Amino acid sequence: MKHPMILKKQTLAIAAVALAAFFLTGCAGPAGGAGTAGERAAGAGGEAGQAAGAGAAAGQAAGVGGEAGQAAGAGGEAGQTAGAGAAAGQAGQEAGVKGAAAKPSGRTALTGQPIRIGAIYALSGNNAAIGTNILRGIDFAAEDINAAGGVDGRPIEIIRGDTQGDEEVARAVAKRLITEEQVHAIVGCHQSTLTEIVAEVCEEYHIPMITAISTVDSISTHHNEYFFRLCPMNSLYLENMFMYMKEQAEQTGKEVKTIAVFADNSMIGQEAIRCARIYAPQYGMEIVKEIQYGQGAADLTDEILELKAAGADAVLAESYVSDASLLMRTMYEQNYRPPILIAKANGFADPSFIPATRGMSEGVTSVVEWNPDMTKGQEINRRFKEIFGVDMNGHSAESYTAVWTFKTAFEQAGTDDGETVKDVLTKIDIRESFPDGPEIILPYDRIKFEDHEFDGVRHYHNNIYASVAIAQIQDGEYKTVWPFEYSNQRIEYPAGYENR
Fold first, then answer.
1. What number of H helices and E strands is found in the chain?
2. What DSSP string describes 438-466?
3. How far apart, in whole angstroms, are the C-alpha atoms of residue 91 and residue 59?
4. Which of 117, 332, 342, 426 has its CA 20 to 30 A from that of 181?
5. Which residues make beta-bridge pairs with 474?
């Protein structure tokens, strides 16, 4: 479905400035709740005009269609640039989009009381860019849902909470959103330690929570009845990496028999090494070298020389972005070129990695939760990019999916009662696409939360069908190469490392 930009530039500019100003006046919330005032204002507009975004609400009330939505979308981009972030970007989508790449027959009037979903992420501090990006996916999903009729006629309203990346702030924000803002559900967080804390608060108040991003295995071991994980655990990331190394031989004709593991001494690095030891024998591979280094190392020459001497068929890497960049520079200096270097996202998926290693990282592969060239979610990403000016990435695609999962659960429950919604989530089984909604755009086709065991430890309410994709740097950008059914790109083997 095409939505051409038909407003004149002057009209767009006026809408952008007005909308940006509106959100900027509402984003100075109390500590731990950045954006709360803006959300209350948007919520009021949502109740009056039944839309989550102020610009779209006004467009709907006046009977204005796609043109008003596009103007509000431009305002969203301006507001985002000015610091309003996804709050302003949210405003434009509802009136300009007639559905969720679903099959709506046109706008349905929203007449019920809003279903309020708390979104708890770092919106200030070092992780603010990550939190803002996640909120783009959340806002976009809410707008799509509301444009298609909401939840049985009730609009979804997103209530923000800023953790500031701090554990105690996260706890206080969760309690405030539940007790003062009266949210019916929560999505969050980005950092697994904070997710664990917010899950405890949700358990106390019987509020269902979905994390779309947090991957540390241990957070699903506490048997919290109200906590559900949509994304894969870290251990599943590692298994998918081994699956790729096994299946890539179908294209390259080169089997991986020996691997080396390169990881820092952080908790995630240690977990990567532990999982590699579990999966290597299962996939017929031998670990010939393990290297653990100090995070933030100033020099990796000795470590790279050890890797080079090991001569493994593939290197499995887990590093933060500064270390990942140093790894590539040192490999280049020492003329070390493993045929496959596969990374567990992290620093290798950071937007700064490719620019920092250009000419040295061609052919590197990395886990991605979603990628713009995947054969799934193309239309949704096209509309997303029209609003925000950037492609979706794994985080925004996962958060988009989490909101649609809640929408389905609320509809199946027929109520916003937390216990009933929790019970529905324990039994929900979404296949291929959401009811009257979009396809599951992530690299899997089913969402079902179940208990399971891994390495002798019981885990609860994980999406057991979740998986990731693998992308390879080709011509200076990540191209999806696996799973093969979601990719149109062939694997380049061996990795060339130098840009053409």
1. 18, 16
2. -B--SS-SEE-EEEEEETTEEEEEEETT-
3. 10
4. 426
5. 477
- Tell me: the pLDDT tens digits for 104-145? 434 567 989 999 999 999 999 988 988 999 999 999 999 999
Q: Checking phi first, is residue 361 left (phi over 0); if not, alpha (psi -120 to 50) or beta?
A: alpha
Q: What is the pLDDT of residues 161-204, one digit of tens each?
A: 999 999 999 999 999 999 999 999 999 999 999 999 999 999 99
Taking the C-alpha atoms of residue 7 and residue 490, their distance in angstroms, rounded to an integer, is 41
Q: Take residue 169 and report the two structure tokens written for it.
A: 């702030």
Measured in residues, the chain has a length of 500
Nearest CA-CA partner of 480 in 376, 394, 349, 374: 374
Half-sphere exposure of 379 (CA within 13 A, CB side): 15
What distance in Å separates the CA atoms of residue 190 and residue 162, rounded to the nearest whole number? 11
Q: Supply φ then ψ for residue 8, to 5 degrees.
A: -70, 155
In the block, residue with structure tokens 């296949």: 431
Cα gap 152→252, rounded to integer Å: 50
Residue 342's CB is within 10 A of a number of other CB atoms, namely 24
Neighbours of 205 (CB within 10 A): 15
Give the C-alpha separation, 302 to 308, whole Å.
10
Question: Which of 40-44, 388-392, 418-422 has the weakest average pLDDT?
Answer: 40-44
